[in-house]
Write a structure and sequence with these properties.
By secondary structure, the chain is α+β, with helices and mostly antiparallel strands. The protein contains five helices and seven strands.
Length: 158
């Protein structure tokens, strides 16, 4: 349970003491990442305006790590999200493609580019892209990967 203390709790890969950060990251993605290539910026806030969490992680991940992520989260590709009728409209609104005027994958790539943190790589048509099922404009999670790096981005406002 979060304290509504009007304080932002921030953890970055440049912090000297990373022990707490690594525990949070392991809880978020389901595995303890290697230090090689690990970058993150985790911002947690709870106070008078409600909750605002912005979390970004980049780490090395192979098939074994992706299997763990897929067990932890109900992941769907952008194309599958459009096929999932109960969630379709919320997803299209999230990626700013409500009218389906462009390719849904291109809209998902643009969404990632607009929201990713500076240290995270761009997504492109060669990237594996997964959204957590039921993501919407106030609470969403997206994973993408290219070249052996897993990127995690989470946003929650409520």
């Amino acid at each position: 349970m979060k304290l509504y203390d009007d304080k932002e709790y921030r953890y970055k890969n440049t912090d000297k003491n990373r022990e707490k950060s690594l525990g949070i990251i392991e809880n978020l993605i389901g595995f303890k990442p290697s230090d090689k290539g690990l970058k993150y910026d985790l911002s947690f806030y709870a106070g008078g305006i409600g909750v605002l969490n912005k979390l970004g992680i980049t780490c090395v991940a192979g098939d074994e790590q992706w299997a763990i992520v897929k067990l932890k989260y109900p992941l769907v590709t952008p194309d599958d999200a459009v096929e999932y009728n109960p969630w379709r409209e919320d997803f299209l609104w999230l990626i700013d493609n409500e009218a389906c005027q462009s390719n849904v994958l291109d809209s998902a790539i643009s969404f990632i580019r607009d929201n990713k943190l500076d240290f995270q790589e761009d997504a492109d048509r060669e990237s594996l892209i997964y959204f957590v099922e039921e993501s919407d404009v106030n609470d969403w999670t997206v994973f993408w990967s290219k070249g052996g790096m897993l990127n995690y981005l989470y946003y929650n406002q409520g």
